[in-house]
Amino acid sequence: MKVDNVNSNRITQKQAENAAGVEKNQKSERENLESLAGKDKASLSEDARILAKSRTALEETPDMRTELVEQLRQEIASGKYQIPVQDLADRLLGG
User: Fold this and answer.
1) What's the confidence (pLDDT) of residue 64?
2) How many domains does the structure of the chain reveal?
3) Neighbouring residues of 44: CB distance < 8 A, sequence distance ≥ 6
4) Any residues with CB less than 8 A from the CB of 75 and at least 6 apart, and which?
5) 3-class DSSP assignment, residue 5
6) What are the Cα distances from residue 42, in Å, to 12, 32, 38, 45?
7) Which residue segment(s) compose the domain that 95 sits in?
8) In this predicted structure, what is the pLDDT of residue 19?
9) Which one of 11, 12, 42, 95 has the minimum C-beta count within 10 Å?
10) Which SS3 state, helix, strand or coil, does residue 39 take?
11) Has residue 5 been placed in a domain?
12) What is the spatial distance between Cα 33 and Cα 28, in angstroms, rounded to a whole number?
């Protein structure tokens, strides 16, 4: 009985073709990554920078001016606080 290597050559040939295809894909992926590496860039506009600074400042600002509130409480308690009627009327009328 004689055994031919005909079928094994087909398998080896297919494996070689597949390996070549895989290497080609890997090379193509590497080239794509290398070409994108130097080109991608992210930057913020001037408006975005100003907004970020404003947001930071706002977060650092207390919600209530405690010194002013305490001063007004003391004036009200002692009877010294006078309602500025004219200012109040102007504000209510949209002035």
Assistant:
1) 83
2) 2
3) 52
4) 81
5) coil
6) 48, 19, 12, 10
7) 64-95
8) 63
9) 42
10) coil
11) yes
12) 9
Residue type, 92: L
**How many Å apart are CA 93 and CA 85, to the nearest integer?**
12
Residue type, 53: K
16 within domain boundaries: yes
Exposed/middle/buried for residue 38 (C-beta within 10 Å: 0-12, 13-18, 19+) = exposed
- Check residues 46 and 9 and name the one with the higher pLDDT: 46
Tell me, rounded to whole angstroms, the distance of Cα 45 from its chain centroid.
13
Contacts of 52 (CB under 8 A, 6+ apart): 44
Give the model's pLDDT for residue 93: 93
Cβ 24 vs Cβ 31: under 8 Å: no
CA distance 34 to 26: 12
